[in-house]
UniProtKB/TrEMBL annotation:
Plastid is among the record's keywords: no
EC number per UniProt: 3.5.1.88
Main function: Removes the formyl group from the N-terminal Met of newly synthesized proteins. Requires at least a dipeptide for an efficient rate of reaction. N-terminal L-methionine is a prerequisite for activity but the enzyme has broad specificity at other positions.
Cofactor details (free text): Binds 1 Fe(2+) ion.
Residues bound to Fe cation: 131, 174, 178
Pfam families on file: Pep_deformylase
Protein name: Peptide deformylase
Similarity remark: Belongs to the polypeptide deformylase family.
Signal sequence annotation: none
Catalytic residues identified in the record: 175
InterPro entries tied to this protein: Peptide_deformylase (IPR023635), Peptide_deformylase_sf (IPR036821)
Catalytic activity: N-terminal N-formyl-L-methionyl-[peptide] + H2O = N-terminal L-methionyl-[peptide] + formate
Keywords, in A-Z order: Hydrolase, Iron, Metal-binding, Protein biosynthesis
Amino acid sequence: MSVIKKLTQASHLIDMTDIIREGNPTLRAVAKDVALPLTDEDIVLGEKMLQFLKNSQDPVAAEKMSLRPGVGLAAPQLDISKRIIAVLIPNPEDEEGNPPKEAYALAKVMYNPKIVAHSVQDAALADGEGCLSVDRTVEGLVIRHARVTVDYIDKDGQKQRIKLKGYNAIVVQHEIDHTNGVMFYDRINPENPMAAPEGLLIIE
Ligand SMILES: [Zn+2]
C-alpha cells in the first residue's frame, strides 16, 4: 500500500512513527505541486495532518499517543513529496489563565503554498526553532523574512492570499521550506549561530 493510501484510511491517526527523520532523502527533495482539482485523498491527508497537530497539542492525546507537540507539518515529513502543509497555531491564554476568545491564531491546510512577496526586514525566533523530523536541539537564530504574502489553494479548492507576520510568518516559512527540501538549520549562520544581522527582528 502506498504511504498516502495508508495515512488516509479512515481509521488511521497520524503519529510520530509516520514522520520521517533527517537523513531520509525525501526531506531534501523538492516536492511536486498538488494536482487540481484536489483529489479526495489529498483533502483527507490535509485533514489528517491538521488532526495530528491538534492531538499533539492536547496533553491527554499527546501523552496517550506519545506525540511531540507541533504547530506545523508538511507532507514531505510523512514521506509524501507533495506541496501540502498544515499549520495550527494556538492563541495564548490571557494573564489570568483564561482560554483565548479565538482558540487559534492560524489553523489551515495549504495546498501549493507559495511566497509571492516578502519584507526586506528579516526575523528570527529568540529561542530558535525545532522540527518533528529532527530529534536533537540545534541552537541558533533561524533567519527568515519578517513578513510574507503567501498564495495557496485551500481545502475547498479556492485560491487564497494571506499576509503573515510574527510567529505565524515564521511557522509557515518553516513548513514551505520542507516542500523545497530545506531544513531550518540551513538558515542558521554556521560560523556564528547567534549572530543577529543588523535590523533583524527578534520574536520572543
Ligand atoms: Zn520541520
